[in-house]
């Protein structure tokens, strides 16, 4: 997430509340409005004095700031642009214009202003940081370069370290990611965001012992997120602590949060402990978890389309395949009807009409017409 630096208010903080020029702003009133964060009122107050012709630099600066803080970003942009036209060498105004554009989501224009700033100040950490964060959103090819420069200027900044390390991990530059994270963690040894990223790095490069240590530290610090627990379970498996692996994954299974991979590692752990009974149990759970609960419905839908194409045998195979995944009353009905109408097999049709009636719910209003038909047709074909 891009952190937007509040615009610097040129001169306004230096308001002299004791001096009052006839016809000018009531500085004391303006200061009171700003200190109580009534920025919209402050902006309107300034305009009430200058109307639409605010050419005085001090007044225009105050107006720009108040409009920005009040969320009147289009007005703030116009004000800051007018100020910049009067002083194109003012870096603070460039920064303020960039911040306005960031808040408006205009990343292209914000980048334009920030790049101008970088040309004037090559040691500006904040600008490189903002360019890097914008680059992550826009896919700028220079993103790593911006963040790397920011990290070089301040290796302790956690936000930059996090963003840069994740980019290095994505591109499998694990050594660079480790250096960035290690330096930042030195400055903040309890930063969970950085420690979690270090755990992600350990997972990515199969450093299982380190992964277990980092995940244990995260959990003790209160980070019991699913990703951390899953990393810990896998880490235990790969360092051959199978009982701990099972305990870890069963802790999330009790919450109903298991997934295919956690069930698989539990099964493998039981197998490596020669507990083959539980291994089989969990391999079956793994298989069940890997199958979409909608597969049966997909086969039924495919069978219905095959019927419409007059592909009776193919439709039958799809319906029967559907029943391997889920017993569904309507699928029985479709099979019965297929045997009855297309395949002309009354004996088979009767079997499946009976299965349909046995599993159908008569109270279900949607199924009631099919139940009535099935009962009627069953009587007809079994006379």
TrEMBL record:
GO biological process: cell division
Domain of life: Bacteria
Provenance organism: Arcticibacter tournemirensis
Signal peptide: 1-19
Keywords carried by this UniProt record: Signal
Protein name: Tetratricopeptide repeat protein
SMART domains xrefs: TPR
């Amino acid at each position: 997430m891009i952190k937007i630096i509040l615009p610097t208010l040129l001169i306004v903080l230096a308001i002299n509340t004791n001096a009052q020029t006839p016809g000018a702003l009531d500085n004391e009133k303006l200061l009171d409005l700003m200190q109580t964060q009534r920025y919209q009122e402050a902006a309107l107050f300034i305009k009430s004095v200058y109307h639409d012709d605010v050419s005085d630099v001090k007044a225009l600066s105050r107006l720009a700031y108040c409009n920005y803080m009040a969320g009147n970003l289009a007005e703030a942009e116009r004000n800051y642009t007018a100020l910049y036209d009067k002083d194109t060498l003012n870096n603070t105004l460039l920064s303020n214009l960039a911040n306005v554009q960031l808040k408006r989501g205009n990343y292209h224009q914000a980048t334009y202003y920030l790049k101008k700033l970088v040309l004037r100040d090559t040691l500006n950490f904040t600008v490189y940081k903002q360019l890097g964060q914008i680059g992550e959103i826009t896919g700028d090819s220079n993103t790593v370069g911006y963040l790397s420069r920011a990290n070089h200027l301040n290796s302790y900044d956690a936000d930059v370290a996090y963003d840069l390390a994740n980019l290095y991990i994505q591109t499998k530059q694990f050594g660079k990611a480790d250096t960035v994270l290690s330096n930042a963690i030195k400055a903040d040894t309890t930063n969970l965001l950085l420690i979690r990223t270090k755990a992600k790095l350990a997972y990515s490069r199969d450093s299982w012992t380190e992964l277990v240590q980092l995940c244990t530290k995260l959990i003790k610090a209160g980070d019991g997120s699913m990703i951390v627990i899953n990393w810990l379970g896998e880490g235990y498996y790969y360092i051959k602590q199978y009982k701990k692996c099972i305990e870890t994954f069963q802790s999330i299974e009790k919450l109903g949060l298991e997934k295919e991979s956690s069930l698989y590692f539990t099964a493998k752990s039981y197998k490596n402990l020669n507990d083959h009974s539980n291994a089989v149990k969990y391999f079956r759970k793994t298989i069940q978890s890997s199958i979409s609960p909608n597969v049966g419905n997909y086969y039924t839908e495919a069978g219905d389309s095959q019927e419409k194409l007059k592909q009776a045998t193919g439709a039958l195979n799809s319906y029967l395949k559907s029943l391997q995944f889920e017993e569904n009353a309507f699928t029985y009905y479709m099979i019965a009807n297929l045997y009855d109408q297309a395949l002309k097999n009354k004996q088979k049709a009767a079997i499946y009409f009976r299965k349909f009636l046995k599993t159908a719910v008569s109270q279900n209003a949607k199924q009631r017409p099919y139940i009535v038909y099935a009962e009627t047709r069953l009587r007809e074909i079994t006379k």
